[in-house]
Description:
alpha/beta, eight-stranded mixed β-sheet, four-stranded mixed β-sheet, globular
Amino acid sequence: MIVVAGEALIDLVPQGTGALADLKPALGGGPYNTAVALGRLGSRTAFCSRTSYDAFGEALLDGLRRAGVDVSGVQRGTEPTTLAVATVGADGSAAYSFYVDGTADRLFTAPAGLPAGTRAVSFGTCSLALEPGASAYEELMRTAAAEGVFTALDPNIRAGLIPDADAYRARFRSWLPSVSLLKLSEEDARWLGGTPRAWLAAGPSAVVITHGGDGLTAHTRDGAEYSVPGQNVDVVDTIGAGDTVNAALLHGLAVRDALSPEGLAGLGSSGWSRLLRFAARAAAVTCSRAGAEPPYAAEVGEL
């Protein structure tokens, strides 16, 4: 079982140009997209979050169920669902503004335990920036790591939601001893400051950095670097691409029985190259269609 912990929200995606373009609701949120992608790739997956009883909340849970994701541990509340208004640039890149005050996912509380058979837990995005839920997700991360569970972190920075950048950067550094795999975009890496070497020294066994259409690079504890190019594709938008990379990495590691520091260390050049190429192919499929629509296993091919 791979557990994905974090927010589920509704993306309002413009269907034209200008501030008053029609908006189409789409299921989203970084952790939500990661869970859906894992389910579609065939990993046994559970979602750990808090969603609203409103119509959007029901639609989010239905989307997880269709992907085969276990939602039995999802907390529920009467508060509304978080909304994210997307703006898509000429190159397909997406930016967001958020409506988060008083929404259901902010009131997440740490569960008493993880599902039986949990091998990994993935964290990231808004859920680690918005209190009081952020402290609860942090508690879950530290507890899982202390119990020897593989932990993955994608900060997926949304700067508009972070009132004190320096405080968040310090908090990010405090998470690293509890992180097995750190994945982040090069934009996030610049915003956070530091280097892969420094982050590895603080705790993670591997750091994977995405470079948009230019591919991915993995940095490992032994000083090695492994890079693969991006996959050529006609980009519709990049919504959910990084979340798909998260899922592909975790799925690939699970298939290889490498969800451990020892497993990561044993991948070597061939193993890392195949894993990163798999993640690049998966992300390319997501970029080829509108919104966060991760691929199914048959669309990506073999690891």
